[in-house]
Amino acid sequence: MTVGKKIKFISRLPLGFAVSIAKSVTFLVRSLRLGAASVLPGAIARRIEPRILQLLSQQVKHGVIIIAGTNGKTTTALLLCTILQRKGFRIAHNATGANLENGLATALIDNANLLGKLNIDYAILEVDENIVPKVLKPLQPRIILCLNLFRDQLDRYGEVDSISKRWTKVISTLPETTVVIPNADDPTLSYLGQQLPQRVLFFGLNEPENYLEAIPHAVDSIYCPRCGHALDYQGVYLSHLGDFTCPSCGFTKGQPALVSRKWPQILIGLYNKYNTLAAVTAAKELGIDDVIIRDTINDFQAAFGRAEDLFIDGKRVRILLSKNPVGTNETIRVVTQSTDKTTLLVLNDRTPDGTDVSWIWDVDTEKLVARGGTLIVSGDRVYDMALRLRYSQESVESNINLIVESDLHKAIATALEHTPANETLHILPTYSAMLEVREVLTGKKIL
């Protein structure tokens, strides 16, 4: 062995050792059925080799794709991953939704051999919006999808403008070959895209028939990010996403690369049209032909907890993750557009959910209450949610059957009992509650 080869071999020892230990931990955790091992292996590997994200991502043949935003990351990532896999590409993907540094490392480690070598074409990584500035430089992504920015876990993240400023600062330092794909209908992200030196491809809607009747209560960014003046909205699709201009400085939304009405969407809910357009824009940038994209959209199956349908005791159960005001308003819109009259809301306040549950007062629960039917509430903060619904009853005429049940197993059983065989039980849980609900219904843990 030559001196050069010896040096190269020695330099790989920490990486190979870190990956080997992490894989051993993964094997142990999964063998003992302690969970999916989606976080711990990466945590251990990063202690052994702090550069592991950089060292592994450098080996991805065609580049890393980052998907960031408040809502829709998991669904968009799964759609894009499925499209590329149908084309025959090998993909690394943090499919469990573990989107902090340890989860990202674990996803790459899972696809490496014991020496720390990767043989994949793309890494598709959904990334928590708060850590985007931390991981962009080590990952050096080829494409960054910026889905949306809403208030979410204010106890951890703060307001959306502070997140956007940090994103802009770090993204602007990346190579100009980086492609950024922001949501044109989000004023904050539309402005971000218009400030960057990189190539920018916007996605968004141009479907006035889908405007909301009024701007929702849970709205975040209706002021111009350039001058601070109130934006003039022609219409909104959800929260502050819509068609807008600033009457003061002339700022307006970016021009989407695709005509939205020409593309079908995955799953239900207008928010999934945004997820579809984001993934399609990225796929077309990577040269994927339209036939593969459309076939994938038509056959798409939901990620766990995101408009996921299960059949329990012969009854359909639909899980709609509801973890912040905008997301919950959209899932309520889905529920109220159906003829089903039984809904279970599960509110937790654990770390994955955010410990501040005051956001439920920004949710338009009045629309859910006004339609009547049976509402069951459960979770760690069951009485907070019950109180919110009681206040909603005071402001609208309704005839609901409100059931408060702190025990989740009993709450699910009660909800199923109240659901007729020809109807769907809608469950609206926060993140940790969604995992618990799925474990009760399927007997399987996700994390």
UniProtKB/TrEMBL annotation:
Coiled coil: none annotated. Belongs to the MurCDEF family. MurT subfamily. One of its GO terms (molecular function) is ligase activity. The gene is murT. Zn(2+) binds at residues 224, 227, 246, 249. It comes from Dolichospermum circinale CS-537/01. Pathway: Cell wall biogenesis; peptidoglycan biosynthesis. Pfam families: Mur_ligase_M (PF08245), MurT_C (PF08353). Residues 321-434 form the Lipid II isoglutaminyl synthase (glutamine-hydrolyzing) subunit MurT C-terminal domain. The active site is at residue 356. The lipid II isoglutaminyl synthase complex catalyzes the formation of alpha-D-isoglutamine in the cell wall lipid II stem peptide. The MurT subunit catalyzes the ATP-dependent amidation of D-glutamate residue of lipid II, converting it to an isoglutamine residue. Residues 67-211 form the Mur ligase central domain. Its EC number is 6.3.5.13. PROSITE patterns: FOLYLPOLYGLU_SYNT_1 (PS01011). Keywords: ATP-binding, Cell shape, Cell wall biogenesis/degradation, Ligase, Metal-binding, Nucleotide-binding, Peptidoglycan synthesis, Zinc. InterPro entries: Folylpolyglutamate_synth_CS, Lipid_II_synth_MurT, Mur-like_cat_sf, Mur_ligase_cen, MurT_C. It is an enzyme of class 6 (ligase). This is Lipid II isoglutaminyl synthase (glutamine-hydrolyzing) subunit MurT. Forms a heterodimer with GatD. HAMAP family: Lipid_II_synth_MurT (MF_02214). It catalyses: beta-D-GlcNAc-(1->4)-Mur2Ac(oyl-L-Ala-gamma-D-Glu-L-Lys-D-Ala-D-Ala)-di-trans,octa-cis-undecaprenyl diphosphate + L-glutamine + ATP + H2O = beta-D-GlcNAc-(1->4)-Mur2Ac(oyl-L-Ala-D-isoglutaminyl-L-Lys-D-Ala-D-Ala)-di-trans,octa-cis-undecaprenyl diphosphate + L-glutamate + ADP + phosphate + H(+); beta-D-GlcNAc-(1->4)-Mur2Ac(oyl-L-Ala-gamma-D-O-P-Glu-L-Lys-D-Ala-D-Ala)-di-trans,octa-cis-undecaprenyl diphosphate + NH4(+) = beta-D-GlcNAc-(1->4)-Mur2Ac(oyl-L-Ala-D-isoglutaminyl-L-Lys-D-Ala-D-Ala)-di-trans,octa-cis-undecaprenyl diphosphate + phosphate + H(+); beta-D-GlcNAc-(1->4)-Mur2Ac(oyl-L-Ala-gamma-D-Glu-L-Lys-D-Ala-D-Ala)-di-trans,octa-cis-undecaprenyl diphosphate + ATP = beta-D-GlcNAc-(1->4)-Mur2Ac(oyl-L-Ala-gamma-D-O-P-Glu-L-Lys-D-Ala-D-Ala)-di-trans,octa-cis-undecaprenyl diphosphate + ADP.
